[in-house]
Amino acid sequence: MDAPTEPQFEIREGDPGDDRFIAAAFRNMWLDIGVGAENLVADAEDRTVQFIENARANLDLRSFVAELGGEPIGGAACQKFAGLYPNVLAPEHRLYGYIWGVYVDATYRRRGVGEALTSRCVAELKKAGYSHAILHAAPMGEGVYEGLGFRHTKEMRLDF
Question: Residue 90 region, left (φ>0) first, then alpha (ψ -120 to 50), else beta?
Fold first, then answer.
């Protein structure tokens, strides 16, 4: 007798109706990595929705939602990286896409959902002609990202 198969999730492109879910997932991501609620602004989700709207209009943002039985269980976004300083390099050398807000509800973790969301973002960035994909990984996601070919780079930080 075959063991019952686990229901499969689906990844679909998000639309403006999903912005509030993506914003809530982004907030939950910060909470899950140990940033206390007291360290988040009260209107974090509203700010994130505004950011998404602006990035969709100006930075080629795409969002993706993982669903199981029609219910959202995870999300992610990717967009053009706007940069931290003037971009003086040719686009074929430095046209970065940025992946952010990869989040999976705790009940559905370790089932490939985060990997599938990240892979979908990578595929979208490749298709759009970006030269690189970058992201900042939480410790629990590092193994997933390394498995997809991401590597550590030499960002340096000084905490005050």
Answer: beta
Report pTM: 0.89
pLDDT one-digit tens code per residue, 6-47: 669 999 999 999 999 999 999 999 999 999 999 999 999 999
> CA neighbours within 13 Å on the CB side: how many for 25?
24
Which amino acid, residue 15? Answer: D
Regarding the domain delimited by 10-147, which CATH topology (the fold level of the hierarchy) does it fall under? Aminopeptidase (3.40.630)
Residue (of 12, 32, 34, 14) closest to 22 by Cα position: 14
CA dihedral 122, 46, 23, 68 (to 10 degrees): -130
Domain boundaries, the chain: 10-147
| Residue at 79: amino acid letter | Q
The rounded distance, in Å, linking the Cα atoms of 92 and 52 is 26
